[in-house]
Amino acid sequence: MLYKIKHFSDIQKEQWDEFVNSNSMGWAYFLYDVIKIHRHNSYKNKSFCILNDKNEIIFVIQLHLTPKRTLTSQWGFCVKDNLPPKQLKKLQKFFQEYIDFYIKEHKIKEFTVNFSPLTDANNPARCNLINPAIFFGFEPNIRYTYLVDLSKSDEKMLADCEETTRQAIRKIGNSTRYSVVESNGSKDDCKKYIELHKETYTRTDNSRGIIDDSFHLYIFSKLVPSGRCRVFFLKDNHKNEYIAATIILIYKKSAYYWWGCSKNEKDIGINKYLLFKSICAVRESFGRTGYFETGDAYPYLRSGKHKGLSDYKKCFGTFLQPIYGGTYTSNIIRKQFKLCGIKIKYRTRINPKEIFVKNIQTKEWEIA
Questions:
Q1: Cα–Cα–Cα angle for 200, 203, 207, nearest 5°?
Q2: Mean pLDDT calculated for residue range 259-283
Q3: What is the pLDDT of residues 125-149, one digit of tens each?
Q4: Domains, in order of start, for the chain
């Protein structure tokens, strides 16, 4: 069976998204319009897919090359469901051969991968105990995140929140001063969000964390109108201005708290109130079912910025869920490289008689 590799930009969006949507390892991060952007504009997008001899996608990966010559797949890869064992084994070897070659060619120092806890393959209902990274040449690791079960009753949604969070929700909710406004993706809303974003990262003494305006413009102009993202502002009706915002990434019956920001001067509990109302709005749109991820969990920390962020993301009646990951174990041996016309040839471990070929005209990798 002939496998070949194509960069995501060489694949039609419809074919790419159909694969992601129809397989259990797929999530929003892999969708064509989402995979196109990254908060670090210095990262080079190397996302690709593997196709079989029928030109069907059987594998996609979100992949970026960093300025430090490392590869990062922030949310991993998606494999076609129910591949026959022989095809799956050959796919695994083909992937490793290509990555070994790429590491050798580009002098890559490290390659790390993580997997979304919200996919059908990994979510709590599935209770998957196997880290998929181990089958593709990665040494496994694990970290954790916080999820909210959206199928809880209205009473438990509030009752399960921590005490100070409940107090803030009730106090601010009973006031007429504040109201939640959902953005329609307008340029004016984007401008206001960017202002809040820059104020937030300046306040936390992390100016290097300020994201280029083009990233936010893409979210507001592309992902909000398509329904892939929902953006909520908290408006101070007395001052007639937005004082906080959340960006929520949506996929089927699951959601992720992607970004948040707020003004420096605000009442205590403003951020908690807005995120809780955002969770509730998403829950209603899901028919009061599904999961909402609030973000990375570090319950073992005793102090510092990450402990504060972890405590904040915990306080909405959450539970812990693992995020599987791994570091690629490259065991590259001496191989013969030969430049031949328009093709670069690379002998593989799969079969010494097989040649790994990149056709520069078609931009495809294949075993010939």
A1: 80
A2: 96
A3: 887 899 999 999 999 999 999 999 9
A4: 4-143+326-367 (3.40.630.30), 151-289 (3.40.630.30)
